[in-house]
Design a protein that fits this description.
It contains five helices and two strands; from the N terminus they run ααααββα. By secondary structure, the protein is mainly alpha-helical. Helix 1 runs antiparallel to helix 2, helix 2 runs parallel beside helix 5 and helix 4 packs antiparallel against helix 5. The chain is elongated, with a radius of gyration of 27 Å.
């Protein structure tokens, strides 16, 4: 159970964390950052969301297994690495487009390494969310086993102390 204050704070923090993660991931080609750090930040935002809204909340956000993100990310990174080979370029060669026009008189520097970073981001998010989900399933299963063991121990204590639990008289069944 989480507090309303925590849920309200998470409602503000999660989108800001995702926005900052996108910024870090996008600037990674020319500055420190990139897909790995961006993926960790996205994972932190998703974990915070899970903590604020319960263990089933992450399943509403990601209605598929995190392995899908890992496979998709590996596929994007793999394709980005191999496509230059089709054009006779070395493995992982980045295509750079300077002055890519985006409108309103603005131009952007674009590198194909962005796709590789997106692939890495998806792998990191898939792995970390998968680990958190698996660990929480294990904790929930242990707690359930503990409750069952505690309940059966309480029943055993209760039956040992009640007079109805007295041993049957020697001599077997009464007919």
């Amino acid at each position: 159970m989480t507090s309303p204050l925590f849920k309200t704070a998470a409602r503000l923090i999660v989108p800001l964390t995702l926005l900052f993660a996108a910024y870090i991931a996008l600037r990674g080609h020319n500055s420190p950052g990139g897909g790995f750090i961006g993926g960790l930040m996205v994972s932190v935002a998703l974990i915070l969301y899970r903590l604020a809204h319960g263990r089933h909340a992450i399943l509403r956000l990601l209605p598929f297994h995190p392995r899908v993100l890992v496979a998709l990310g590996l596929g994007i990174a793999y394709a980005t690495a191999l496509i230059p080979l089709l054009f006779g370029r070395p493995l992982l060669t980045s295509l750079v487009i300077d002055g890519f026009y985006i409108g309103l008189g603005q131009r952007v520097h674009f590198a194909s390494a962005l796709f590789f970073d997106v692939g890495v981001l998806l792998v990191v998010v898939g792995v970390t969310v998968g680990m958190i989900q698996r660990l929480s399933e294990e904790v929930d299963a242990q707690a359930l086993r503990g409750r069952k063991t505690g309940a059966s121990a309480a029943l055993a204590d209760e039956s040992a102390s009640s007079p109805a639990a007295a041993p049957a008289p020697a001599g077997g069944d009464f007919k």
